[in-house]
Amino acid sequence: MNYYTADLHFGQKSLLATGKWRERPFKTLDEMHETMIKRWNKKVTNNDHVYILGDIGSRGFRNMHPELLAMLKGNKHLIIGNHDDLSDLRVRQQFVEICDRKKVCDNVDGKSYNLFLTHEPYMMWAGQHKGVIMLYAHLHNTVEEHLFQKYLAEFNKDKKPNYEAKETECVAYNVGMCLWNYEPVSMKEILSRKPGYTCDTCSHIR
Q1: Gap between the terminal Cα atoms of the chain
Q2: CB under 8 Å to 151, separation ≥6 — which residues?
Q3: Over the stretch 59-117, which tens digit does the pLDDT of each residue have?
Q4: Angle 111-113-118 (CA atoms, 0-180°, nearest 5)?
Q5: 102-108 and 111-117 as β-strands: parallel, antiparallel, unpaired?
Q6: Band of the pLDDT at 206, cuts 50, 70, 90?
Q7: What is the DSSP string of the chain?
Q8: Closest C-alpha among 179, 195, 184 to residue 142
Q9: How far, in Å, CA of 173 to CA of 2, rounded?
Q10: Residues 23, 15: contact at Cβ < 8 Å?
């Protein structure tokens, strides 16, 4: 089974309920870390593959928390985010691969889906009209996230797909943890929601 997630931000106090951004419902880092690790390991097995679309910790190699990464089950793939620092060998050793972007194929109920994985979202990406779904992160549950999904909706409305040419609408999903109950999600779970979903428990917009 493949899972997808992003924006763990281990050690970043500013995201706590008591922090600058008040994005997350946790009062302490220990509470946040414990909740995220528990939910991750309840769902993921060591045979599964988890694609982390960036931002493991807060900025700087001292804030990547390899000791927390080591507690997470599964074969971990890292798509590098702007907060990620790979200077520490202990961090790099936690991943089966590390890359800037990646294309993968996943299967849901016998149907194959081509995916483009990236930390920061793109306005245009290869295969966007041929069914390639972009999974991204970085925007959290912010004004920028809402504006990006609004742009996609308007783009699809204005540029109607040419169905004779087997074109599809452009579809992209934010897999950031704060939008998915602080746990990795499968492609089946992702497809069950409309793009642009807003989490009721973390609705702060900065």
Answers
A1: 34
A2: 123
A3: 766 789 999 999 999 999 999 999 999 999 999 999 999 999 999 999 999 999 999 99
A4: 160
A5: antiparallel
A6: very low
A7: -EEEEB---BT-GGGSTTSSS--SS-SSHHHHHHHHHHHHHHH--TTSEEEE-S--BSSSGGGS-HHHHTTS-SEEEEE--TT----SHHHHTT-SEEES-EEEEEEETTEEEEEEE-SS--SS-TTTTTTPEEEE-SSTTSHHHHHHHHHHHHHHHHS---GGGT-----EEE-BGGGTTTS-B-HHHHHTS-TT---GGG----
A8: 179
A9: 16
A10: yes
**Across the strands, what pairs with 173?**
135
Q: Per residue in 122-181, pLDDT tens?
A: 999 999 999 999 999 999 999 999 999 999 999 999 988 887 788 999 999 999 999 999
- pTM comes to 0.92
Evaluate the CA torsion angle 97, 9, 33, 52 in order and state its sign.
Answer: negative
Both structure tokens of 119: 């930390």
